[in-house]
Amino acid sequence: xxxxxxxxxxxxxxxxVTLTLQNAVLGLSMRYARTRAGDMxxxxxxxxxxxxxxxxxxxxxxxxxEGNFRKFLRTLNLTIIKQPLDTLKVCVPSLVYIIQxxxxxxxxxxxxxxxYQVTYQMKILTTAFFAVLILRKTLLAIQWSALMLxxxxxxLVQLDQSxxxxxxxxxxQNHLIGVSAALSACFLSGFAGIYFEKILKGSxxxxxxxxxxxxxxxxxxxxxxxxxxxxxxxxxxxxxxGYDWVVYYLVVLQAGGGLVVAMVVKHADNILKGFATxxxxxxxxxxxxxxxxxxxSLQFATGATLVICSIFMYSHQPRTNDVSDKHLLINKV
Length: 333
Known about the structure:
Blueprint: H1 2-35, H2 43-66, H3 69-81, H4 84-88, H5 91-110, H6 113-119, H7 123-134, H8 141-160, E1 165-166, E2 172-173, H9 175-201, H10 207-237, H11 245-264, H12 270-291, H13 298-315, H14 322-329
Antiparallel strand pairs: 1-2
Helix pairs in contact: 1-5, 1-6, 1-11, 1-12, 2-3, 2-5, 2-10, 2-11, 5-9, 5-10, 6-12, 7-9, 8-13, 12-13
């Protein structure tokens, strides 16, 4: 009996560490990969590779759920091939997630990791907006206050970051492009997450199978994007131009991070998730000072503190809303 009582506590701490590392490391890794010296990899191909890794991971998880290969094939046939209209419903978030992930790479190329991390928390605001609009959810007064606090914090951070700069890769940093890409990604993240939740709640298909559908449809969209924008470079230099262990690591981190978090977050509550996200912002700020020569000003610190407080305030909500966060975490990267 004592063992069983202790397990939930251990799993909560594991969730805290996993959520914190996933949030902090992804932002820092994307920034490093996009600003280091050397041949620059194509972000469009990295997005496609991440989808391929996620598809393989979800197929394995579906196989584990079914127990044997025959049941696995039968489930794929019944869910994907024999329900084409249901599968096509996933086309919308598939396309949106591909665009969103490409925007995140653009944002990481033009914003330092700390600013990127704080700005991307605006997805809380867009998610809340679409939850009210699409799912007809009602927000508590404290949540509306949290959203206003979040907006104020992000504005303070952005007003503090206005000077253009350069990085070892030689790429000119354009703050406006970075912010625009991050905010666009937040908007798409909110819409796709809520749309995907509506699909999940409207059927008895497992989360992993839905993600198989999502990735199967995302791959054609992603490949189309690759050849539309980077076709010349791909034909001349190859699909994996600029790839090394850092890029492969980033691909796996982006694909697997959300899936790992989705599996462990069920053992944590919203307050713990908010704490993990807040801690990730702090880690990103501290790491950026040492890794990317980031200068922490009083205005940035004030804005980041307001964002962190808003996350805690928004997390103070009924447990019935927890399912939304669990579904959204699967594709947030």
